[in-house]
Amino acid sequence: MAEQDNGRAKRGQRRGARGPTVADVARLAQVSPMTVSRVVNSDPKVHETTRAKVEKAIAELGYVPNLAARSLAGGRQCRIGLLHSNPSAAYLSEFLVGSTEQANAMGAQLLVEHFEEEASRDELAAKLLLHRVDAVLLPPPLSDDVLLLECINRAGMVMAQVATGAPSPLAHAVTIDDEAAAFGLTARLIALGHKRIGFIGGAPNQTASALRRNGYRRALESAGIDADRRLETTGDFTFRSGMDCALALLALDERPSAIFASNDDMAAATIAAAHRMGLDVPRQLSVCGFDDTASATNVWPELTTARQPVADMAREAVRLLVDSVFDAKARTPRHVRVDFSLVLRQSDTGVAVSA
Amino acid sequence: MAEQDNGRAKRGQRRGARGPTVADVARLAQVSPMTVSRVVNSDPKVHETTRAKVEKAIAELGYVPNLAARSLAGGRQCRIGLLHSNPSAAYLSEFLVGSTEQANAMGAQLLVEHFEEEASRDELAAKLLLHRVDAVLLPPPLSDDVLLLECINRAGMVMAQVATGAPSPLAHAVTIDDEAAAFGLTARLIALGHKRIGFIGGAPNQTASALRRNGYRRALESAGIDADRRLETTGDFTFRSGMDCALALLALDERPSAIFASNDDMAAATIAAAHRMGLDVPRQLSVCGFDDTASATNVWPELTTARQPVADMAREAVRLLVDSVFDAKARTPRHVRVDFSLVLRQSDTGVAVSA
DNA sequence: TTTTACCTTGGTAGCGCTATCAACAGCAAT
DNA sequence: ATTGCTGTTGATAGCGCTACCAAGGTAAAA
């Protein structure tokens, strides 16, 4: 009931005091609202003096632009649909942090949508359209779903694939050089003295899996080690599949002395499998993973792995999308490659073992 | 230059065709824009017949409300700051999914902000204020930071603590019954025949830690088992601390036959420690965790644990916050308790072992 | 000096929606 | 017939911001 007037004169006849507006700033700085708008949007054609005055007024009032009004007036409005489907929680977490941050910073709205494997791609596209989604952000494994890409493209939305092995001409892409990273890790195992190195591949439907396998093979090759196809197994990025593959590898007559798993979960499983068989890691078996997710440090010994800057990749992808939505010229698909790094921990640094 | 008119009469003189508006729907349904607005917002006082007409028109045009305009006109605007500080990635991920979903559904804006341990709470509050944050969402461990709560409260923002053991009178709280869950898990271990059950506590500065410890103690007590304080250790929810505690417990003269860890990461570490000492889990050592995060299934054997519905809790918290922001009457702190469940997997189901 | 060209600023008119209040039924009670 | 309702609808006026165009000033060119 009590109409409390917290120190500020009520503006309209609507409900009480919200934050200061361009008009307030304009009054204080003795310029027009329009000029304030220009300063806020860093329009180059504002005189230095005026800009300073306005900035002072802004600081004084603690003015913050109202996003709603801005996007309404500006006509611009960017909704990004983030589609995810059962990626590792650790990956998704980092991805979400990066993408929400960037989306907020750029005034875009992020809609997080879970995509069931079995769901119809057409229905999904229809749903996105219904939600007025302008752009779609695709973390793996969805970034490799060609049907989905085509479907979304047909619906006229911009897309960004993150961490795909096969950038589509229909979409932006942000990737690391998976092959180089896998090459690097394998080369390191070789440098440690290993000659029989087992490989656990990722899900065949993710293109990155093939790239990592190539990196592994190329490293062996360039070290002059004959490839033994029995040492190559294929999992699906889950812990359980990693366990199965590792057990199979460790049951071979000529057991590998090192195993390169295509992601951290499978590497963690490999360590578990080794322990289960009474092998010490890294003394009797060196292991390395890929991705540097939380799993990498939640095992003992901690995993040597390749780190993708997931949050940065998400940020970059959002940036590409927002730019595309606001500026038709930026709509031609771009492919951004970001740097990875090798994180050396304890899972592989045992005494070098010769086969 | 070519003013392309894509099939729809241009509305303003501004840039071309955006989606249909209330006016379009109103015209088609032969009612006033206001009535359309009422239907969209499910205002009860609209006649059945009218509602049907409008809904038909909406469907026909594929109308979707413009959020920006709505929040501008409604004067309502809700920004929720989600503060997180190094929680487990798995937890954060689920939390983010739940909270972004709910925030979008309720037309609120979510700002994700990382809070460094060392950062000044006052500066943080100032920053939140600067970003015009109306409400703050606090997942653990921040939900237990009393200083932070006071600070934010002083700044006049609404808060919600998630998974705290000590709901503050200053904030909403969404919790599970940690004590009951810990009781349940411990009771299960006892039922399996264990008499010496080790305990790995969580970080002392998180109130949930104490509750879990109480549940553990109470279960022992009600089973008539004498508490042996040497069996109680204290970690800090990290894998590494779990490893240390587990190694200590397993080095005791009278080794425990089961260990209850206060979260999954520490339970995973316990399994790793057991393997490291050549003990089989669950045959020689039963283990159970808490939270049912991704870690629970990324170890072998998989963890028996207590599941918190993290995403649901986040959703509920967001709901409480948004309601509070839009409706002053809903601002009195509420404490919502949601159900947990015990997830029985393989880490504890060995042959029952007697001490 | 006048003209042309900027460079900077201001005025006006909405963006799409909803709060508010006024208006008009239709019906019961006076 | 008049009054008073409840239930439903419409008209009006902005929310805070920016696109657009026009207007003033100053400097360079004629």
Description of the molecule:
The structure is a homodimer. With about 350 residues, chain A is α/β, with parallel strands linked by helices. Chain A has three domains: about 10-40, no CATH class; about 75-175 and about 310-340, Rossmann fold; about 180-310, Response regulator (Rossmann fold). Chain A contains twelve helices and twelve strands. In chain A, the strands form three sheets. In chain A, strands 2-1-3-4-5-11 form a six-stranded parallel sheet, with helices on both faces. A four-stranded parallel sheet of chain A has the order 7-6-8-9, sandwiched between helices. Chain A has a two-stranded antiparallel sheet with strand order 10-12. The termini of chain A are far apart. Chain B binds a DNA duplex (30 and 30 nucleotides) through helix 2 and helix 4.
Structure summary:
Chain A is of the alpha/beta class and 355 residues long. The first copy, chain A, has helices at 22-29, 33-40, 48-61, 67-74, 89-105, 121-130, 146-154, 178-191, 207-222, 239-250, 264-276, 310-326, and strands at 79-84, 109-114, 135-138, 158-162, 172-175, 197-201, 232-234, 258-261, 286-288, 305-307, 335-337, 341-343.
